[in-house]
Amino acid sequence: MTDARQALRSEWSDLIGAERAPDAAWRIGESTAGPDGIMRTTVHLTSFGVTLDAVLLLPPGQSAVIVVPFYDVESLLGIPSERYPDADARPTKAFAREIAARGLGVLAVPWWAEIEARPSPAVELHARYGPVAAANRARFPGVTGLGRSIADLRLALEALTTVPGVDAQRLGAFGHSLGGKLALFLGALDTRIAATVTHEPGLGFAHSNWEDPWYLTDRVPTDRDLDEVLALIAPRPVLYVGGGASDGPHNANLAERAATAWPDGGLDVLQHGNGHPLPEDVLHTSIQWLSDHLQYSGERSQ
User: Fold this and answer.
1) Which of 35, 70, 135, 162 is the most exposed place for a label (fewest CB within 10 A)?
2) Which H, E and C letters describe 162-175, residue by residue?
3) pLDDT digit string (tens) for 1-24?
């Protein structure tokens, strides 16, 4: 079963082109301590010609760390950004700030397409990210936008596991929407992730914009679906959360099919019915779930 799972991971990795960038490198920047004792460190990631400045918030002691991908780091920390100028908007997008406030470490990782698109004044998704996705395809024909994102996150994990105070056996992934898609694939393809929360990822190729150029374009498969990716997280635990927009009763059958990979349980499903945004109470429930599932150490079965 282990060999079969690893072969399937390799198939999906090849399908999306999640290959390590030729220029892949990372550097741990200087750390500063906040008044709450939380250390803030910038992790500089070089990948596919772009520098991504991720931010690590680490409480004292040996800590579990949650990797959180999103459009930009600023919004994850509750700081106004170009994309999200209202830092106090609710439902909150300050996922990293909320995770750190509850005693877990967190690595906030920006999205390559947002970094490359920042000179553009466009706001609409295709106008803002379409050109940089097309340029990515031209420069790296075998690398989809989704594959590039996962390669960046795997590089972030590589850097993260070298930082003192990070418990490499207690790494989690959390994501909403775009981040939910990335958390889903990261948890499936990288077994260093011990627990995963994915909110409104659009489980099933028919239920979200997977064909967009910053995801898969013409590589959306027709002979398999994302229940296979979700199942690849097993036996590690996952919380799959839907609000009834991209994820709800309409794709519950895919979650049910994936659940057979956890014969003894491990796939938790939460439906809140509040649409695509992540409500604060559901965010806090998700953080508590991660805390509960990462309070262990030692070797995990694959």
Assistant:
1) 35
2) CCCCEEEEEEEEEE
3) 578 999 999 999 999 999 999 999
